[in-house]
Amino acid sequence: MNEQGIVYILRSLKTDKFYVGSTNNLTRRLEEHNRGHSTYTRDTGPYELVFSQGYPSLTVARRIEQWLKAQKSAKFLERIIEEGEIKKKVS
Questions:
Q1: Measuring CA to CA, which of 64, 72, 83, 89 is 20 to 30 A from 54?
Q2: Phi and psi, residue 4, nearest 5°
Q3: Cα(first)–Cα(last) distance of the chain, in Å?
Q4: The pTM is what?
Q5: CATH number at residue 39
Q6: Cα gap 25→28, rounded to integer Å
Q7: What is the pLDDT of residue 2?
Q8: Nearest Cα to 36, choosing from 70, 12, 6?
Q9: How many domains is the chain partitioned into structurally?
Q10: Is 64 within a domain?
Q11: In this structure, is the dihedral angle defined by the CA atoms of residues 51, 88, 3 and 74, taken in order, positive or negative?
């Protein structure tokens, strides 16, 4: 069974930097970030959700997450947030 995946972008209210992730349960994952349960985001929270987009599977969402992280560009993420969608074709 393939679960739906979600790619999300968070903005740190402390540092104003972005964090990109993927999950199958956005509510739970945001709570984990804000409670300090994630090693990478523990010291930079709290976070606000600024973008999310669903995908047919968590596997596809993880591929998109890695692609976004490889861009290494806050401007690129800001454009996605402004446009309201990730325009990458998925397979």
A1: 72
A2: -65, 145
A3: 17
A4: 0.92
A5: 3.40.1440.10
A6: 6
A7: 64
A8: 12
A9: 1
A10: yes
A11: negative
Please give the Cα distance from 48 to 34 (Å, whole number): 9
Domain that holds residue 58: 5-83
pLDDT in tens, the chain (91 residues): 568 999 999 999 999 999 999 999 999 999 999 998 888 888 899 999 999 999 999 999 999 999 999 999 999 999 999 999 999 877 6
Residue 59 lies in a domain: yes
**CA nearest 45: which of 27, 72, 18?**
18
> 49 CB contacts (<8 Å, ≥6 apart)?
8, 9, 10, 26, 30
Instruction: Judge whether 91 lies within some domain.
Output: no
Q: What is the pLDDT of residue 91?
A: 61
Exposed/middle/buried for residue 67 (C-beta within 10 Å: 0-12, 13-18, 19+)? middle
User: One-letter amino acid identity for 6?
Assistant: I
